[in-house]
Amino acid sequence: MTTSRLLLWILAALLLQVSLGVAVALWRRRTAPADARQPDEAPVPTLTPTTAAWPGTRAFRVAARQFEDASNSQCSFLLEPADGRPLPEFKPGQFLTFMLAVPDAALPGGVRPVTRCYSLSDGPTPSSYRVTIKRVPPPPDRPGLPPGVASNHFHDRVHPGDVLEVKAPGGHFHIDPDPSAPVALVAGGIGITPMMSMLRWCLSTQPGRPVHLFYGLRNGGEHAFKADLEALAAANPAFRLHVVYSRPDPDDRQPDDYQHLGRIDLALLQRSLPHGRHQFYICGPGPMMETLVPALAAWGVPDADIHFEAFGPASVRNAAPAAAGTSATPETVPSVPLDVAFTRSGRTLAWDGQDASLLDFAERNGVALESGCRSGGCGTCETRMVSGTVRYDSPPDHDVKRGHCLPCVARPTSALVLEA
């Protein structure tokens, strides 16, 4: 072998050794555990599911149930997958959709299919989900009406060992994982449920992130998760708890049971929150939402920092109300009212753009439509469009069939005929 050929072989061997060394280093860097990385490599917590959510429904067994308030009106149900397989993570604030078979002797077969959505009320775990459901009585001003079908079914008939059919977690109302933005959680009544999920996730994964929770209710009898919230506040310096009673009972004590008297409003937030940016997450009954969300916008809070979810019929616009004498944008109010016909009820009504959705419009005019999440996630209200077109402010989570729409998040853009 010549000297030149020997040198070429040596150079080739050296290059191969260097290449192997670089490859091994890159492999070690990629597979190193998170706690072995340098501080500047630490990943920001994400909320992306580690496993794909399931299609259709999945069977869950009720592992336990527990009342969360002194009046036994709010009950938590711990759900475990019947197949025993790990659960996908969800985004704290999302809900589950339940496909229920409610006994009804007045119907053929004696069963009424009902779809309802309930917020997850705990942080993500691979073994179980938890929802907390408030029993809905007849309206106080109309005691002759029936109570809430699904909530009373859960309270009266769903017990440990029962199996429920459940759709995967969904919904756009969930916490932003960016730890740089302090959080203000605002809950009214049963609106505390998604806040418990957000709060527990924050405290477990981002313990240094400032969190303020404003929880409004009437009195101590309705105070859900009281011991849990007080324990979390005592154990986490970055967490501040603000409980607001509007009508305290004689034995409710301030500041032990509650810190503020009245209702949650902009003035309370301004007094309680430190100066600077906050991300607001708001969930509660219609009257609270309809006043607080526009008030935050009028205060100057950017739209991107106001996140909300209403329960019950509520038209919430994420903007300050228009001043007297001004008009809304052409996208909101049509130049000429649009006819919306409901074929089953035989009603034709004039859409003038004053409602947030077709569902709100129908309810305001006494047209009954099935609904669940009211946010485009469950598909309960999906309705066939005989003719006409609609638009959505943002794409719904539910995969809408061709020629159908979701009235809970849709607005008409032309004269419309709905099979409803």
Brief write-up:
This protein is α/β, with parallel strands linked by helices. The chain is 21% helix and 26% strand.
Q: What integer value in Å does the Rg equal? A: 26 Å
CATH architectural designation of the largest domain:
3-Layer(aba) Sandwich
N-end to C-end Cα span: 91 Å
Largest sheet: 6 strands, antiparallel
Q: Number of DSSP helices?
A: 7
Task: Give the proportion of residues in helices.
Answer: 10-25%
Main-sheet strand order equals 4-3-6-1-2-5
Structural class: alpha/beta
List the domain count as a whole number: 3
Count of beta strands: 19
Which sequence of SSEs, written as H and E, runs from N to C? Answer: HEEEEEHEEHEHEEHEHEEEHEEEEE
3D shape: globular
Characterization of the model:
- There is one protein chain.
- This protein has 420 residues and is an alpha/beta fold.
- The chain has 3 domains: 57-169, Translation factors (Elongation Factor Tu (Ef-tu), domain 3, Beta Barrel), CATH 2.40.30; 183-310, Nucleotide-binding domain of ferredoxin-NADP reductase (FNR) module (Rossmann fold, 3-Layer(aba) Sandwich), CATH 3.40.50.80; 338-418, Ubiquitin-like (UB roll) (Roll).
- The protein is 21% helix and 26% strand.
- It has 7 helices and 19 strands.
- It has helices at residues 3-31, 149-157, 192-205, 226-235, 266-272, 286-299, 358-364, and strands spanning 57-67, 74-81, 95-103, 111-119, 129-134, 163-170, 183-188, 211-217, 239-245, 260-261, 279-284, 306-310, 338-342, 347-351, 383-387, 390-392, 404-405, 410-412, 416-418.
- Strands 4-3-6-1-2-5 form a 6-stranded antiparallel sheet, with helices on one face.
- Strand 13 (338-342) and strand 14 form a beta hairpin.
- The radius of gyration is 26 Å and the shape is globular.
- The termini are far apart.
